[in-house]
## 1
Amino acid sequence: MTTPQSRTTLPEGAIVDAPLIDLRERQRPSRPPVVEATMPTAADDRRPSRAAVVGVTFAAVLVVGFYVALPIGLLARAILPQAVFLAPVLIVSASVVAIRRVLRATDVEPVIDLTDPRP
Amino acid sequence: MRAIGDVGGALGDLYAASYRTMGVVLVVGITLIAGRMLWYWHSFAFHWRRYRRRDAVTTAMLAREPVPYVKIQVTTRGSAGSTEVVLRGIRNVARLVEEAPAYYSRLVSVELVTESEAQAQLVRAAFEDHPLKVDALVLLPDYETPHGTQLKARGMHFAVEMRRLGWNRRPGRTFIVHYDEESVMVPGELKKLLLCLARTDKKVLEGPIYYPLEYLDASPLCRAMEANRPIGCFECRHVMEKGVPFHLHGSNLVVDEQFENELGWDIGNLDGQPFIAEDYVFGMKAFLRHGSQIFGWHGCVMLEQPPFSFSSAFRQRYRWVFGVLQGLAASSEHAAFSALPPRLRRRLQWGTRFRVATFALGAVMGGLALLYVPLLAVSSAQALIGGSSPIRAGVAVWMALVGTSWLGSVFVGAWYNVRDAGLSAAGRRVEIGRAVALAPIAGVLESSAALWAVLQWAAGKRSVNWHPTPKTKAADDAIDWKVAA
């Protein structure tokens, strides 16, 4: 599937006049030319910093740990105390794998071809 | 020092004691919300095959089918930032036509309905020499519908009246595909839609929406809030296939032209105030007149973008809920509604109320849960290493299930949204992780808009205003909501 990544710059001074709608706009002496919005491309990727990866991972683990793993751990402690830490890890991992399987099945391919070289 | 310690201990005891009462409230409230969440999961887990059309469609395949004519209608006020995104949506339709100009230019056209003459001229000029026919209809400032309909529905009814008069009339079956300003359907999905429409006998169809456009320009909080939406589309699929319109979104909405011309968008007003959720009102009107068999699910993906700022997102969510409350009140007074079988009537009313109530309840329950996080975290951690558990085993199972379905739905939504956002695998993982990490805060903030709408409605407030969510970062930064309102 191919999809365009187009960027059409319209002529200088081609502006949208919508004075009845946005009063702030009306007060401006001039507005920039309209530039067509673009489709996402692989070039949009902003590689996450190591700090962002660590921080986000830590925060996500904390949230999943509290809302999902902790109740499972408490349950495991009542039923099988030896599995108090293993059970949450196994169940959370199995849930993620199961959800990902359905997601991959519904999304056989991305909607957009991010590698499309067209400008 | 000892006195301070005593006060601290007393406060701690009070906090723990209040949890004994609030814990029950939390479990009951969360159970109500989970009921709705599990419904989404039912559709996700057992009916995912019907959610999205997965087989690619080629022009050769379409050539063998009786493909109807498709008019893509973009309805906009023409406010700042809208032209940029409208052009992107049309450009993608143009790409489809470029694949086989002689074939697709006979099947597809674009109709822009705008309040801005300058925008109409600009869009017409941009596609003047293109085989795709792009027409623009400028809403006359003094135009009034017979029932005094205002806001977006006014523009939509203007288009209906023009079509009734013969504007862009086409022979044979024709469908209107409704776009929001920023909506995009890529050529591959448009071809799937054409094939679906060639084979369907339904009059009103919808499909899923993902939110990957301008993704990284939206605030992290807005991205996390948007991750709640795609799983909701699994419920849309169910609603559309069952034909009971608890919910109808205004974009990726495909309507048979003849049917739309007959029904129109002249939805009138409620207590002198315009309807803010014209899509919901239209769906109810269609259902009351023609029943459930007209509704269907086309399963072709539309792409849109998240709001850029929390202010925009809050107002958007407020409008949804307030609009549904308006629509429900109006429908309940309709004679055709009273004529429905009592069971169906109750299902429609209480089904919609349940949806709204659980959305609003999220703010209360999420806020309370955040308050008790420190207490629960400490007591649970102590229990894991040998203390007594703060919750019973049954409650623990239920909480784990609810937590999994809630954070899982955020995971699913973020997955769909980042899939097409132009990110590397590492970038996608970080974005999904960020959405999950922010879910407790984003969920409370998002549902606070719903709660505010319910409270305003309950207090008797009926006035509304409509300013479309700004569609570029610059427009969002520039907007002064006090002036816009």
## 2
Amino acid sequence: MKQKQILYEKLIRYILENQERFYRVAYSYTRHQEDALDVVQSAVCKALETYGSIRNEDAVRTWFYKILIHECLAVLKKRKRFLLSDESPEREEAYYEKGYEQDDGLEKELDRLETDVQVIIKLRYFEELSLREISCITGLKLNTVKTKLYRGLKQLKENMQEADL
Amino acid sequence: MSKLEIMKERYDQIAIPEELNARINREIEKSRERQEEKGRVGGNHSFKKVIRGVGAAAAAVCILFIAALNVSPVFAKEAEQFPMIGGLARILTFRSYETEKDDIAVSVEIPTVEMIAEDTGIAVDEINQEILARCNQYAAEALQRAEEYRAAFLETGGTPEEWAEHDIRITVGYEIKQQNNDYLSFIVRGTENWSNAYHESRYYNLDLRTGEMVTLKDMLGDDYEGLANESIREQIAERQKAGEVFFTAEEGGFVGISEDAKFYINERNRPVIVFGKYEIAPGSSGEIAFEIEESSHDSVAEKAETNDADEAAQAPQMYEDNFAVDSKAAMAFAREIQAAAAQKDLEALAELTAFPVYVGLPDVGVVETKEDFLNLGAETVFADELLESVKNADMDHFQPSMAGFPVSDGGVASINFGVTDGVLAINGINY
């Protein structure tokens, strides 16, 4: 029991300390304030409900990100189902909220990548997690993470160069 | 500034709605109530208060945390590439201009190599003149091509408005790859956004010890061709496994590097051979780069890593012993230790540590758990002497021993790490 309480305390502390990061992660997927708030809130709710399942308390961070990313992707999936049946990735731009920044071409290119590649790039460069942590969060093998990251960056570069065609 | 950096910057600037904190607190409150209901068993009424106290402290921590974030290690690494004070030489923008005529935008940034140290006897005038001439020539030719395109467009019935919508842009710029006391490596690129046919990139690799342009032979030795080809073939095979598409030899794919293979020198002073778009893979792959490892030993180590990683899905780099760790990984791990020490971040240091760990403080000795370790306190663990030693550690000459790798300036105070259960971890702290 005591062990569990300590873990619970730790988790709450972690959430409070990192809430802004969570929000940024959520926003980078949803690009929508209200949706991002919802995502963070439900991730927090789920985390607090299931914290007992953390096997290793040192893994709180990767464990929480796993939940958070899952929530983000769930929202995107729901939107997709709601708005169209056709899965053409270009059409996703339609959901873009205006005013993310004046020039959000870069972010659009990022959002156009395969979902798992996007996740990896965001975690690596924006959240600055280690490849090892990303491997835990995504459940992908470390080498797969490396390759996908590498390929994603390549593709991004490529798309950006051609973005104006 | 790279595009990723721009994105990261914007990412960090994503505005945080005020509501966030309230909503999270509400969620925590709800959860706490549920906990209390369930937790009567524990009968701990002060529990709630304790957590509130933690919350307030956390808010204070939060501010510090954000401040630290802005000095991010990933970009700190990139920042190293920017002009350094006191280096031998650096790359500067010699001339930069933007023009627009007939809805053709031209943006040019011409680099120049500047020697900072005076007595090196290295003359860079010739290189600089060549760069300048090439950049100007490219811009002029591209402009002419664009004008021809425009003329043809208008002649065939296009309107000036439609032409303007084409948003034609010509860009000449450069990219610094390595800039230290050994090498200057940079790429000068010219691009036209309406066509790939005339893209041009020139790779400049200057050896600052000799003042000569570096060749692959200089970097890899006489058998540079064999070494490079072997390494590239291995890497292609690996990437193919991961689903990347390369042309076969019949389709015009990789058959071996040419004499004038393009390469740059990366931040680890290794040559990286670059293939242009369409050269060995479909255009969608863009440019493809291969870092060539130092020796066959390294590629063996890498292979071992691959196999192990395949076997143990979540466990990265499993090492058999300290001698199996390549210097690259050792250095990276040592940097993590340095970062934790620099910020006196005990939590971060604990993350890197395998318990039980030896801590050579009076009355301490072996610390059994992370909890106990954290309880020692950052001030105690990060004694001044230790911080000094770690900060000034000689990172370039890591020699493994049975005991592992010491991060120290040669003195007694050190943080040692080595292979524990197959991964790198701190295994002792000496004072």
## 3
Amino acid sequence: MAEQRIGEVAKALAVSVDTLRYYEKCGLLPRVARDAARSRVYTEKDISRLKFIRRAQRMNFSLAEIRELLELREDPRHVRDEVSALAARKLEAIEAQLDDLTTLRNELTLLLNLCQNANEGCPILETLDEGVPRRDKAR
Amino acid sequence: MKITVEVFVTHACPHCSSAEALVADVVAALGKERFDVRIVDVVEELDRAVAIGVLRAPAIAIDGAVQLTGLPAAEVLRRTLRSAAEGLMDHSESTWRNSA
């Protein structure tokens, strides 16, 4: 991937150019190179780091946490114990969230399959409407 | 010890009642005393269904593991239940026609 201008990066990552400038100003991103016209030119490494920051933000990591995790990303072999412990905690949280997401995905898959193949009505909508068991289980 | 057979159905599923009837027939032929059959309404027991991996109905689980999805052929069901009863269960799930 070629180097990219700030507008292109902002568009690709769905953030504002101000946000990109802020990441640089607060040190989450090292100083970005400038071209002859003093416009920012983002390298692949910059963009990779920005993607990491955005993913971590979507997981509700704080900027302080992200800053620490970036240390690990920069040099995994020489990382402080606190950073290593933080990464382990975050990994645990991600795995718990993955379990939740998997369960939710399977639940929605099941309900959609039932809906699409129902003889009459849609179990999803009926469940949402009624909020109570609909039929006697004794059969 | 009895083999637990759960038949996951919904009231609106086109082949669920056939699956229920088929399980009842096959279990009767193999010996009712060997099986504990439970009809599970997927919508009412959604958590149970999702927990053991039911993604369509009808589905048949044996001892808590989904073994057949869709309406199986009678022979396939008979073979599966007989294997379970004889402790020869193959735990890979099979998918058959007519699943919702």
